[in-house]
Amino acid sequence: MNTTTxxxxxxxAAAAVLAAGAAVSGTAYAGSAQAAxxxxxxxxxVSAAAAAQTPAKVHTWLKTSxxxxxxxxxxARAKVTVKLTADEVGSDRFRIRASGLQPRTPYTVFLLEKxxxxxxxxxxxxxxxxxxxxxxxNEYNLIVEEAFAFDNETQSRTDLDSVGFWFADPADDDDxxxxxxxxxxxxxxxxxxxxxxxxxxxxxx
Length: 205
Prior knowledge:
The chain is α+β, with helices and mostly antiparallel strands. The longest helix is centred in the first third of the chain and has 23 residues, at about 5-25. It is about 25% helix and about 30% strand. It has 2 domains: about 5-50; about 55-200, Sandwich (Immunoglobulin-like). The protein has an 8-stranded antiparallel β-sheet with strand order 5-4-9-10-1-2-3-6. A two-stranded antiparallel sheet has the order 7-8. A hairpin with a 4-residue loop joins strand 7 and strand 8 (about 155-160).
């Protein structure tokens, strides 16, 4: 018997068996050249499970804090992205990416009660330093979604759902604001410049 003919007959027989099974299950079979529907392979269930395991993300663009800073740094951009993974791994992933800032300059990043003055409660969460092109990126693992400040004496709790960053060195904003620009406490050594950018009305979850 011709080998090619025999193989063709076996393929036709297999196709007939698949077609009969599909008819019983209510699923149409269109031949071996066409992939089976996702429902028939279980692919839908896999995709749904994968989607359920994908952490939620929130993101916001920060804006310059004052008109004077906006005039000095018209191309300043900063994006914060938070991957909400605390329930799975014990912390969220906070990412900040910035450009158009003052080159080779360190900044301090805070979660805040209020984005702008007078800021309210604040949590110092990290630093970043721009490169020679005024760009920077950093990532911190911490609680973001449920960040709060708690005063045990008054039993008051304050949600920290805004973001801002400051010139870490009080002298670094002088080129823009002059030598008499305010000194603030937004650094580990309690000596920083002004706030550069913040999240305005946007609130983290």
